[in-house]
Design a protein that fits this description.
The chain is mainly alpha-helical and 309 residues long. The protein folds into 3 domains: 3-66, no CATH class; 75-146, no CATH class; 173-306, no CATH class. It has helices spanning 3-15, 22-41, 46-56, 59-66, 75-78, 81-102, 119-146, 173-193, 212-235, 242-260, 276-306, and strands at 106-108, 112-114, 198-199, 207-208.
Length: 309
């Protein structure tokens, strides 16, 4: 009977995302529009309805008035959508880099599945992963919003601590410059000699301490761990929080776990009077203990940050 009115109400229903009572709301809006048209024009005609609909508001705005208190994602949680997505994608990115570097697939149920692929295909995969991570976070926040009551999510009480509050010193540009310079030297040595573990006699051409496959493999892991330290230190110029150092040590521990469980077995050169396998194992053990200590210290600092008012 009133075609334009029905189209208008149907468009409102597209925006009206409520659990219960959608039909009742549409019926109420129809009644209001009909009453207003009759009151202002004396009768309900196509022309009077068009004028009333034009002044009633956009369908999206009308639906929003009836959705107050029944949001898809609560405004309290909505501001964390991008933060949580960035955190999840950071893990996705690191696992993808590891999968591509070692030519394998990684499965971490329920959130991550990284197939075996080349570096070229990793680029579109990461774009897809970003959309996926955004959707996962949005779904979680939607479920939390729909649950009535006081719901607290992890990290909500975390804030970035000021200098000295968590015992974390402010990063210094000079230290970052030295780290980058040292990484540049290591990268140059690796590109030139295909290893970071070598020896030389009378400054002659360096010889690798390991077999070629192991030299390349463990050198890349060492560079990755060092690069992780540099990236973590740089991020602290933006957010000087113990959460950064905690994530940094966690990634390095993952790399060390790969070293201990590596399918590539090192074959050491024979050096008179020195057991290089014992030296190599001791060096990795020292790095592991040092990293575990740093990880635990970061946990204490994170707990201290969370307890701050």
């Amino acid at each position: 009977m009133h075609e334009n009115l029905e189209k208008y109400l149907k468009e409102i229903s597209h925006y009206l995302a409520v659990k219960h009572g959608a039909n009742e709301i549409i019926a109420e809006i129809r009644s209001h529009i009909l009453e207003k048209a009759e009151r202002e024009s004396g009768s309900v005609t196509a022309e009077s309805l068009d004028r009333t609909i034009a002044g009633y508001g956009r369908p999206r705005d009308v639906a929003a008035k009836y959705m107050d208190g029944d949001e898809i994602i609560s405004p309290t949680f909505r501001k964390y959508l991008f933060r949580y997505t960035a955190m999840l994608f950071a893990v996705h990115f690191v696992l993808t880099v590891l999968a591509v570097s070692f030519g394998t697939s990684i499965i971490a149920i329920p959130f991550f599945f990284i197939p075996k692929m080349s570096a070229f295909w990793a680029i579109p995969y990461l774009f897809m992963a970003l959309v996926y991570d955004f959707g996962v976070v949005a779904l979680i926040l939607y479920l939390v919003t729909q649950r009535k009551g006081d719901v607290r999510l992890p990290w909500f009480g975390v804030r970035l601590a000021n200098r000295g509050e968590s015992g974390l010193k402010k990063p210094r540009p000079a230290v970052l410059a030295m780290l980058v310079a040292f990484f540049g030297v290591l990268l140059y040595l690796f590109l030139r000699y295909h290893t970071l573990f070598f020896y030389t006699i009378n400054f002659s051409r360096p010889e690798s301490l390991l077999n070629p496959a192991a030299s390349v493999f463990f050198s890349i892991l060492f560079l990755a761990a060092f690069a992780c330290d540099i990236i973590g230190y740089w991020i602290r110029f933006l957010f000087n929080t113990a959460w950064i150092t905690l994530a940094q040590h966690a990634v390095v521990l993952l790399i060390l776990w790969i070293v201990w469980n590596s399918p590539v077995k090192p074959e050491y050169r024979s050096v008179p009077g020195v057991d290089l396998s014992l030296v190599g194992g001791g060096f990795v053990l020292f790095l592991t203990v040092l990293t575990v200590f740093g990880f635990l210290r970061s946990l204490v600092r994170v707990a201290r940050e969370m307890s701050l008012p």
